[in-house]
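Lab notebook, bench 4. The sequencing result for the construct came back, and we need a structural model before the next group meeting so we can plan mutations. Quick request posted to the team channel:

Model the 3D structure of this chain.
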Amino acid sequence: MTTNQPPKRALHFETKSYPRFGRGVYSDVNPPSTVKSSPFFWWFMYLRLNNDYQETAKNNGIGKCSELYKDFGDVTNIDFKTWWRDHSYLFAEEASKYKLKLAETKDDLAPFNSTEVVNVVVPLTWNQKSLKKHFSMLLDKLKVEKGQRGPKVGSDTAKYSLGRRWNCGAMETAYKVYVARQAHMEKGAKETKKAQHKGEVSAKFKVAWADIADMAKVIVSNKDSEGMARDKTEIRRLQTILANRHYKNAQAFIQSSVTKSFPSA
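Done. Here's the predicted structure in token form:
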């Protein structure tokens, strides 16, 4: 699929956790930590698991995810590094026409009637405390948005942006649990006497949740919070709970992957 990518420029993303590939040989199976720590990588990986997107791709862009497919294209027969090279601009914020800098000539001055930028005179005879106080008052007067506390969530200008706060470690574990669970699923006709459900496909899993947790390396401590040893039954019970939780999280990530904001709130 041909990508209508704009001319190359330095891209700015809403997070510093954008993928960095390094110079080694790249593989989605074992990507470097600087890639796995990026939510954009997991967006791509979960999109691969979305059935609606897979069907749309098989039908050459016709289906429930046709609009997204126009932008993202094929994600199955391509590695993330190659895909990101051609699609990273979709997640980049729009470049600002202005930047904060010291005006050294009249050519550096901004238009005086602009609603996007102002020229400020800074008395260098004032101390930093006074300057910061008056600069803060000036920003309030100009009604500049203060922004929210904590890490920034979402972008005002990127076509596709990050949603709620995310944890790549949790995304990775959920992904491993989901893939392991699906790999040990067998499908068969559902046994039912009701004609309207005859031949319906059901999912049967051949491996216990606790074993799936082992495969996905979901760790449960051998001791509880009070330092008491846990027996094998208790450990497997906790593994079952955690594996179920991660699996449900993965399902939510998969659904979120076909929206314009990942992960969805």
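The longest strand covers residues 185-189.
Will bring this to the meeting.
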